[in-house]
Amino acid sequence: MFRSDLFQGKRFLITGGGTGLGKIMLDRFVGLGADGVICGRRGTVLEETAREIMARYPGRRVDCFTVDIRVATAVEEMIGEIWAGGPLDGLVNNAAGNFISQTKDLSPRAFDAIANIVLHGTFYVTNACGKRWIAEQRQASVISILTTWVWTGSPFVVPSAMSKAGVAVMTQSLAVEWGRHGIRLNAIAPGPFPTEGAWARLNPMKESDEDRYRARNPMGRVGRPSELANMAAFLMSDEVAYINGEVIAIDGGMGIMGNGTFSNMMAYSEDDWRRIREQIQATNASDKAKRS
Ligand code: HXC
Q1: Confidence (pTM)
Q2: CATH numbers and ranges of domains, the chain
Q3: Helix residue ranges, H only, the chain
């Protein structure tokens, strides 16, 4: 389904699309024939990205809007301006804020700094688009970038985990409320996908990703940006228009590995397993002998 005209005639907004995973998704969508709109707080970064992507895909267009999605009035104004240039067909809620901290050290302002972007900002953008799609009877697809913590919670990133869990519930709620208007909402829950912006705040001790994830991830590695971009293109596409209200993990199985009582045994060698088998067989034989 990833043919070069998959998104021909479509126009998608990616919040926080100037850098990191947002930029990678933009590249993938435009490469598949879409026009892009990106927004973020740093105008020069957005413009540089737009120039780079348009140079890579001649004939395609990428528009930029400088906005802080925490400000509801600014979001409404931006979405109005975007629509004046043509309606959107899809939205990726990618903009986020996060930092590692012990929760006891967070001030109310620190909590708000994250929640106002992830929970409030995501809602402002989604609803500003949604009401226009409903009024115009226009079909659309929304993808929100979450994390696997929406199912498990996570220590040291509580404002982000709480806010993203809220967006997961928004996804399910609006999938039902807006499904009859032809608007579907899904979410992607990535595991570790190192990007400069996120890792500056989430890996402050600069631990090696290889060391951190070799034993803790079934696939022994972090995610590749292109894998996330492919998932986003798949979900955004009309080819899968019956997928609605799903939150899909892309984490190499890391999120469920922690739940397995015996996941630590992934590190055992063949020799360990031979000894385990011998020991269990010996126990079984001695039990049998006792019974006879
Ligand atoms: C405790 C902290 C803190 C820290 C800031 N604060 N950093 N408290 N520990 N490390 C407090 C401040 O003291 C202040 O509270 C309040 O937070 C607001 O701080 P500001 O610097 O004024 O905030 P602001 O300029 O709004 O920026 C905060 C931010 C910033 C939005 C979170 O980090 C940012 O711009 N991030 C954008 C990019 C980003 O974070 N990307 C990562 C997304 S990764 P007081 O009370 O002192 O005034 C992600 C999930 C990844 O979302 C999943 C991977 C598995």
Answers
A1: 0.94
A2: 11-291 (3.40.50.720)
A3: 20-31, 43-56, 72-84, 108-115, 122-136, 149-152, 158-179, 196-202, 209-214, 225-236, 254-257, 270-291
